[in-house]
Amino acid sequence: MMRFERGLDFARAQDAADPLASFRDRFAMPRRPDGTDVIYLCGNSLGLQPTAAVSLVREELEAWGAMAVSAHFAAERPWVSYADRLAPATAALVGAHPSEVVTMNTLTVNLHFMMASFYRPTPDRRKVLIEQPAFPSDRYAVESQIRFHGFDPADSLIEVGPRPNESTIRMEDLETCICAEGSTIALVLLPGVNYYTGQVFDMAAVTRLGQAQGCVVGFDLAHAVGNISLRLHDWNSDFAVWCSYKYLNGGPGAVGGCFVHERHRDWVDKPRLAGWWGHDQASRFQMGPDFIPISGAGGWQVSNAPILSLAPVLASLDVFEEAGMEALTAKSDRLTLYLAYLVCEELGARVEILTPLESGRRGCQLSLRVRGTRADQRRAFEALETHGVVCDWREPDVIRAAPVPLYNRFEDVFEFVGVLQRALVLDG
Predict the structure, then answer these.
(1) What is the pLDDT of residue 269?
(2) Does residue 172 come out as left (phi exceeding 0), alpha (psi in the -120 to 50 range) or beta?
(3) 8-37+325-427, what's its fold?
């Protein structure tokens, strides 16, 4: 059992003993007006800049200037295979084979690409199951795909949400829905981690349940990749998509990624949105009229890689490889439980934690609800901002705080709770 203490000395002792502490220096930390570091607990929205990203982007700019088009083959990191360079580290993060992952596009674009292939509705099996609340972009994408195929979301979209007076979704309710509606469900599409509550879904169980009913099962890993342990290949998930600007620290609007299970690697005569860059590499430059896809996830590419956008992702993946996901998740578990401990001890009945606290049911994000009116809740959040705490607000009433193990300290968590405590005392 993890044991915690309330004082600052305890937090500093934990930081002094942290084998990952030095990784904080590998990221650019925003500063307050007085020159001190902000308390940055917003990596679930935008990860910090890896300091190595600056030099990697500069190197590609220099290659462009020095070699122009020749850099596709002659650069130190040839542009023609740049995305392939990211595959081994990406595969390790999501628990996949390198041929099952590809870095391309952005999250919602990738979701549409995957649904173009994997959502094949019929009049009898046309429904899509999502969670409630789903992130709006996912819901919009799903609704638009349903309409694109000539169906009505009113009777083709199924949402499973928390029970009354509960914050998270029960696995048994998902199971009941999938078993009851399975013969009519074409696609089960759930997140790895819910954006609002921070709840981690049992992706292995969801995959088994959905596929047993003949459903395709896919996941949005926006809040999961780089945050929790993933084993997509072993779980047998059909596909997954993610962004790289949150926990993967790839920068604003960074290139996202896809997973396609190797069961689908020879997806030749089945539907897909095709483009030249997804063509078999050995014959791509022969410019033939017939599309021959790369075997595996790479066959879903449509455009050549945006090198300047991929360089920061590569910089971050290098850090993940060095730190190791096992060590990161171990620190994350302890750091987040420490946050929960302090919230319970110091803030008591004033703040409710919506996120499950059991290991395996949450990552590093805790979703906090200040008890009181909406005005009370907003004042508390604005007080955090005023005192140099960076976290975020999600409608209607949640403060999300995410202590990221790569660059957050126990002292950050201690200071955050102290600022929130003072704000609530002044407000109360």
Answers:
(1) 80
(2) alpha
(3) Aspartate Aminotransferase, domain 1 (3.90.1150)
